[in-house]
Amino acid sequence: MDFEATNSPAIIAYLENKKELLKAVVSSKGVIYYDKTTSGDVVAKQVLAELRKLVKLEFGVCAEDGLNPLQIEQLIITEASIGSANANSDKQTDSERITDHIINKAIEMRASDLFIDTRQGKARLSFKVFGRTFEDVDGIANKELAEKIIRSMWMKGDSNWDPSGPCDCSFSVGEGTKNMVRVRGNSIKEEGRGNAIAARLRNPFEVLPLDEAGYLPAQLEDIRIMAEASGGLIVFAGPTDSGKSTSLTSLVSLLPDDLRKIEIADPPEVFLDHCTHVTIERNVEGSYLGLDKILGAIVRQNPDVLVLGEIRDRMSAAAAMGMAQQGKRVFTSLHANGCAGVPPRLIDLGIGANLLGFKEFFAGCVSQNLVAKLCPHCSMTAEEYQDKDSARRYQKLFDSHAIRFTRPGGCSKCIKGVKGQTLVAQVYPLVKDSGRAYELIRKALFSDLAVYMAKEHGVTDKHCSAALRIVDGQLDPVEVAKRIGFFPDRTYSGKRLESVA
Ligand SMILES: [Zn+2]
């Protein structure tokens, strides 16, 4: 937006006088730009009406445009940078205000991440909400403003932003309240173009109850049985952003207070009253730094339950197994595909199959992905959906006419057609087994294990768990397939699945 502020002394004085009541600027052509979010306010309305009269008096005409607060801030900054060379302190305050506005907007939208990318004079602001990233429509006008915002973010964490290399910042918003949000920012340099900023937002006190996470009732029951086993490894597997650490926290919060629990994570994201949280750092390869030292201390702390944020390498795998061998319950996460992929991955990481194949050491595993939940107010029927072939295929595949799809723009009650996220999961409650499942692990017969778990324990795979909620229109099959892969042609009755392999 090209903007030049009016030099009318009467208007400048009036705006200065009323700046606490109405955020507005007037251009050299007599256009009033005002913060439209204040338009419901009676006093702001009065101020605007008077401003209108004044502008009409000065210019003979009066055009006006309601803008959002961010755009108004940008105009005020443009005005300040043109109007005065020594307005540095004021400009700082303005960029701080914009930073607060952006962070609050992210929190209001329940964004998990906020991104700012600067590229050769331009800047781009985007949010990740419910697993999907989209650009903010208000945007940030230019690279200069974006850099001021980034600097002020880093200053919130009492550090200086260094655009020349990787650097981190962390700070809290709303400290002391239950709505507190911890922000962890990371900046990297893109050679020749600019910088990429990613900031993660988490409420450190928010624990999602396990029964609201999206597991099927039978899966919940199996997870509870695994968690109540007196010892052994429980592994949550899935890609990044599949809710693994949220599930670990929910599970720990379910355990009775009389069990001593210690979590090691980089860094812990949620803090529980009855759990000790230890922060561990990682080196550039992603391995934990000083894990052996921390483990030595933890053995002396004698916990009943150890939560190891993630098994990342042979050393953390050995640590998890070592604690399990001491009869502890060890909850951890791992990058692996499907439950049947967990034992071979652990064996790859140096845990012997002969050890893993025993109930005392391996209680079971969960494989999961997060998928978007459809907004019930605006989801589309198969008839409305633009891709008719795909709509027909899914109707036939799931034998349902109640299937719904995402409305691209969404409605006022959702974000782009999505209203939250839910898990689709597969659970192997190995600890319930009489021994055959462990025998298959010891013999490294993992596809036999998959077939056996489906037959003997009625284990459903992720596609089947999702199908149960696609048939009644809660999940969009197209979106689900993007996360867990193509739905092959087979029966999705939602009942017991006979074949998983
Ligand atoms: Zn909607």
What topology does this entry show?
Layout: H1 9-17, E1 24-26, E2 31-35, H2 42-59, E3 63-67, H3 69-83, H4 88-108, E4 111-119, E5 122-129, E6 132-135, H5 143-156, E7 167-173, E8 181-190, E9 194-202, H6 217-228, E10 232-237, H7 244-254, E11 261-265, E12 275-279, H8 291-301, E13 305-308, H9 314-325, E14 329-334, H10 342-348, H11 353-356, E15 362-374, E16 380-381, H12 388-397, E17 404-405, E18 418-428, H13 436-442, H14 446-457, H15 462-470, H16 477-484
Parallel strand pairs: 2-3, 10-14, 10-15, 11-12, 11-13, 13-14
Antiparallel strand pairs: 1-2, 4-5, 4-9, 5-6, 7-8, 8-9, 15-18, 16-17
Helix pairs in contact: 3-4, 4-5, 8-9
Bound molecules: zinc ion (ZN).
Structure characterization notes:
The C terminus is likely disordered. It contains 16 helices and 18 strands. Helices cover 36% and strands 23% of the residues. With 501 residues, it is an alpha/beta fold. The protein is globular and about 90 Å long. A hairpin with a 3-residue loop joins β8 and β9. The chain starts with 8 loop residues before the first helix and ends in a 17-residue tail after the last helix. The chain folds into 3 domains: 59 residues; 108 residues, Beta-Lactamase; 275 residues, Rossmann fold (3-Layer(aba) Sandwich). The strands form 4 sheets. It has a 7-stranded mixed β-sheet, sandwiched between helices. Strands 6-5-4-9-8-7 form a 6-stranded antiparallel β-sheet, covered by helices on one side. α3 packs antiparallel against α4 and α4 crosses α5. Zinc ion (ZN) binds next to loops.
